[in-house]
Task: inverse folding
């Protein structure tokens, strides 16, 4: 069976990363590792390591993405929790067999080879959960 | 200066821990370490280790606590993110000096000696953040 190994990241959706960095970098003292454009998500993401996890600050770069609408409706805040697993495909099969509501029925693949999938908040008690499997 | 070392836990507020455990334990495969009454928070908390962090499922045990009202208003979901630091008092001083809005101006202490404090979501881009310092 697939094993859940750690919190890979928590993701906050923000309208102004500089405002968010004032707390997470300047206040809490985390390092800003990098800021990257993620065109397939229509977003720009800042990565701040925290132990074996990261805090990710996600800024929508278009007004019509799901992320942009989420931000417009709720304001800045938590967007999702990402749990690293050793096999996203196996975990999705297991969750499907358990009757859990998924957003992605099979793994999606990022440009860097990372496999991931999202689980519907209805299945998790209200939290959008991303599963994440590092490229080998 | 105080150092932030890891995500100590993420806390979900839930009305029925058995429903939440169906996903986090039975689905995702996390172990249920223990379930404890936390009378000072009018809550019962289930702890599930995940790497160097925990997932905490928090069920309000009275109807009139802040937590119970939060649950009644928003339904189950993310409640806060807890960041472990090596010195909560020093971090609070640093955040105060930076003009960040705090909920606790000085560290609070749990029965087990853990020092903690909450930071207002207004300061953090929309997430309730707990600072946490292990008892020595």
Result:
């Amino acid at each position: 069976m697939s094993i859940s190994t750690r919190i890979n990241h928590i993701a906050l959706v923000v309208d102004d990363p500089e405002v968010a960095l004032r707390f997470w970098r300047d206040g809490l003292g985390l390092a800003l590792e990098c800021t990257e454009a993620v065109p397939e998500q229509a977003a720009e993401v800042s990565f701040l390591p925290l132990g074996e996890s990261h805090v990710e600050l996600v800024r929508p770069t278009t007004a019509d993405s799901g992320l942009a609408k989420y931000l417009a409706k709720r304001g800045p805040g938590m967007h999702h929790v990402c749990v690293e697993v050793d096999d996203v495909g196996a975990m999705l099969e297991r969750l499907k067999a358990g009757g859990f509501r998924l957003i992605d029925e099979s793994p999606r693949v990022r440009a860097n080879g990372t496999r991931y999938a999202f689980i519907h908040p209805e299945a998790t008690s209200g939290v959008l959960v991303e599963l994440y499997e590092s490229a080998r």
About this structure: The longest helix of chain A spans residues 17-27. The longest strand of chain A covers residues 4-13.
